[in-house]
UniProtKB/TrEMBL annotation:
<dbReference type="InterPro" id="IPR000717">
    <property type="entry name" value="PCI_dom"/>
</dbReference>
<dbReference type="Pfam" id="PF10075">
    <property type="entry name" value="CSN8_PSD8_EIF3K"/>
</dbReference>
<dbReference type="InterPro" id="IPR006746">
    <property type="entry name" value="26S_Psome_Rpn12"/>
</dbReference>
<keyword id="KW-0647">Proteasome</keyword>
<dbReference type="GO" id="GO:0005634">
    <property type="term" value="C:nucleus"/>
</dbReference>
<dbReference type="InterPro" id="IPR033464">
    <property type="entry name" value="CSN8_PSD8_EIF3K"/>
</dbReference>
<protein>
    <recommendedName>
        <fullName>PCI domain-containing protein</fullName>
    </recommendedName>
</protein>
<comment type="similarity">
    <text>Belongs to the proteasome subunit S14 family.</text>
</comment>
<dbReference type="GO" id="GO:0008541">
    <property type="term" value="C:proteasome regulatory particle, lid subcomplex"/>
</dbReference>
<feature type="domain" description="PCI">
    <location>
        <begin position="76"/>
        <end position="257"/>
    </location>
</feature>
<dbReference type="GO" id="GO:0005829">
    <property type="term" value="C:cytosol"/>
</dbReference>
<dbReference type="GO" id="GO:0043161">
    <property type="term" value="P:proteasome-mediated ubiquitin-dependent protein catabolic process"/>
</dbReference>
Length: 285
């Protein structure tokens, strides 16, 4: 089949939400793009108006492929396509007559969210620093602001705000870009993992009823299941962290926390404040 025919089928599949079919068509199209020097922009041909027009089509194909891969939960393929799009978004092509892409910030926002969901904070900050140098007013962009604010809240220990935002599927950015929701579960797990590490450092034991609030889980049964994944001991409805702390140089007695309150991390402070809140709720109940 010709490149024109395949491209038409790709767009048709994407518009019909047949994302798996779109993903399956993509490799054949990429081969033809490569053969025509359109998968990677040829800088020596950028003065050719027809070539620039063809590059626009190539960029659109890769963007459709990236969004289709997200919807099929093929996240490694999505990352690979973003790397291919990088050369269209951030090189000499942009200094010529290649018009701006309406999908650019959406795809880059999804890419940052993918890095967060993997817990790859180092790469997240590296890519964000690059984007801040190439995109104006990045913090005010509806799409790019979403992963940025999630990461900021997690970094500062405001897990409740991050989780509330992740769980809210009716927010403005998610109504306009439903693909954000693909990362909800993995983001929640990543945040719970961070909270869990703070819990291990801060407490020798913790009732399941309180841990439920700290981990933003719905029941004590869910806490027990999470505890099993973390290798925590559960005795008579109480999480036990002594064994973990005994083998860690970060061990601190709970009594020392109050004395060193100014030195605790934002994560540990949230754990402490949330625990107090949980205790208050229990006393009311």
């Amino acid at each position: 089949m010709s490149l024109e025919h395949l491209t038409h089928k790709l767009k048709e599949s994407f518009d019909s939400h047949e994302y798996q079919q779109a993903v399956q068509l993509l490799p054949k199209i990429q081969v033809l793009l490569l053969e025509n020097s359109l998968l990677i922009p040829n800088f020596s041909k950028l003065e050719d108006s027809q070539y620039l027009s063809d590059l626009l089509i190539s960029r659109s194909i890769l963007e459709i492929g990236a969004l289709s891969a997200i919807n099929c939960d093929e996240l490694d393929k999505f990352e690979h396509l973003v790397l291919q799009l990088w050369s269209f978004y951030f090189n000499q092509v942009n200094h010529h007559q290649l018009s701006k892409s309406g999908k650019k910030n959406k795809i880059l926002a999804l890419y940052l969210l993918r890095l967060l969901s993997k817990g790859d904070v180092v790469k997240f900050h590296s890519e964000l620093e690059f984007l801040q140098g190439h995109i104006k007013n990045i913090d005010s962009d509806l799409y790019l602001n979403y992963p940025i604010k999630i990461e900021n809240w997690v970094l500062e220990g405001y897990y409740d705000k991050a989780i509330e935002s992740i769980k809210n599927t009716e927010s403005e950015e998610k109504l306009k870009l439903k693909e954000f929701n693909v990362f909800n579960n993995t983001l929640l797990e990543t945040i719970r993992f961070e909270i869990s590490r703070s819990m291990e450092k801060s407490y020798t034991s913790l009732p399941l009823s309180n841990a439920k609030y700290l981990l933003f889980l719905n029941s004590e049964k869910e806490v027990e299941s999470w505890a099993g994944e973390q290798g925590w001991d559960v005795e008579r409805g109480v999480l036990q962290f002594e064994k973990l702390q005994a083998s860690s140089s970060l061990f601190q007695d709970n009594n020392e926390e109050d004395e060193e309150d100014e030195n605790i991390t934002p994560s540990e402070r949230l754990v402490k404040n949330t625990l107090n809140y949980a205790k208050e709720i229990d006393s009311i109940i």
